[in-house]
Amino acid sequence: MDELFEAAGTLRSAYRGVDWASTPLGAVSGWSPTLRAAVDLTLHSRFPVTLFWGPEFVMVYNQAYVEMIGHKHPAALGAPAARVFAEIWDVIGPMLRSVRATRRATWTQDMRLLMDRRGYPEECFFTFSYSAVRNPAGEVEGVIDIAAETTAQVLSERRLIMLVGLSDTLSGLDDPAEIVDRAVRVLRTDPEDLPDVDILVADATADTGRPPSAVPSTILRDGDLVLETTADVPVMRVRLPGPPPYAETVLVARLSQHLPLDDGYVGFVRLVGATVAQALQRAQTRQAERRVATLEQELSERLQRSLLTPPAQPPRMEVAVRYQPATERARIGGDWYDSFREPDGSLILVIGDVAGHDQQAAATMAQIRNLLRGVAYAARKPPGGVLEGLEAAMRGLGVDALATAVLARVEQDEEQARVGAATLRWSNAGHPPPVLITPDGSATLLRTPPEMLLGVRAGLARSDHQVTLTPGSAVVLYTDGLIDRRDAVIDDGLADLVGTLTGRHGSTAEQLCDELLGRFAAGSDDDIALVVLRIPPEPAGRPGRGEADRGAAGRYSEFR
Description:
- The chain has about 550 residues and is α+β, with helices and mostly antiparallel strands.
- The protein has helices spanning about 10-15, 35-45, 65-70, 80-85, 90-100, 150-170, 175-185, 265-280, 285-305, 360-380, 385-395, 415-420, 490-500, 510-520, 545-555, and strands at about 50-55, 60, 110-115, 120-135, 140-150, 195-200, 225-230, 235-240, 250-255, 320-325, 335-340, 345-355, 405-410, 420-430, 435, 445, 465-470, 475-480, 530-535.
- The strands form 4 sheets. A 5-stranded antiparallel sheet has the order 2-1-5-4-3, with helices on both faces.
- α6 runs antiparallel to α7.
- Mean pLDDT is about 85; it is low at about 205-220 and about 545-560.
């Protein structure tokens, strides 16, 4: 096998199985230098990448791309794209031909495609860019596609918006008949997830203004949910317990034939049923209303958490995160955290807050969080430059929102890695200052000159600041829900936070999160997000540790 394919990893056998000489690309030995260079770049990337080469757009791709095309692999390797993607060629074909003809790159965010990759036309979403690959003479030889599948995020956001909108619509209603009618109208606005939906009332004597149904009271005798398939169409029935005469109300939903019938889909319909059932119960008593509010809060928290991922955990460091919704209302908001590694191994920490407390704020939060991830990962700039890039991306993509954020990068040179130290470099866009806990237990606000929020004005230059962290130190990033109270000035809250963290140098990152929520969460009427980074103390007797600690001890006040 040609040494060009050595970087193909688990795809080596697939490359070996292709008779390249019989493809439009011809034998590998005759490939142009431009094609060989593009293939080498593709196979060495861990991001999903495919090449569409020549007039036939013959496909060559890497391992990360396989998961996105499912059972199309391995037949897609070396095959013309029009044959591989016949079901979506009317959409992507013109885009590829345009890039080849005009040399202009495309950019598509969260494009919906019905792709056959599991034996049926599946609703998928992708963010991708087609770019021309030119040879030294300037001729376009192929098109490179750098892509990311966003199906999980789009479905989560879409269902989140539906659930929150349904909850908001029903929250102020007290009449069960109106609850049923309004719920059906709202649910029928989501034909992608619920192609056909109704709520049937078994009691024919009920004066609901709707025709009585023939739902027998025993239809769900074995549980609260029945899932069956009729004429290859999955249908789900969910019991909606409520006050008489709505005790045997049933949600009947025909599910999409374009989505996998997985736990997330079934869980979504369960949550739809739960939301309607809760509204019916709330109409009966105040006690039911309080119970519904609690369940909705748990739902909001669960859905918000679905947009947030577990933090990266670098060696010899602890990273802990928390998200807690407001205690006084079962609604979602724009608070978020993030923690991930860059290609060079540096750790990125983010805390942010989008203005607002509704489904739009949550959806905008998800957009900004994903944009920031992409900009930080691709730009490889200092934190201030990343925030500048984020601001430009928000403007260019029409994300009209105000947000605060702290973006921090944790870096280590060889000497720091040897002694367990690190450099924290950060930029602050209008967000409350992080708190530094030093190995001796003192706590300090990392105050910096104030800078504008994201979304206020384009083209602002962002500043970078840094501080040296030694073993035993910790940094706490948080949203203002932790310290901002209606009956107190924010400086009092900051002072209380510093006092609480003083002397906590012996606590782990997880313990610091729990201690802060235990101290402040009960009095907050806002969402709270936390990110805590801690460098554990080095074991006693570690070579060079004492000198490193003494050398860095004086640098905690030198951040700029």
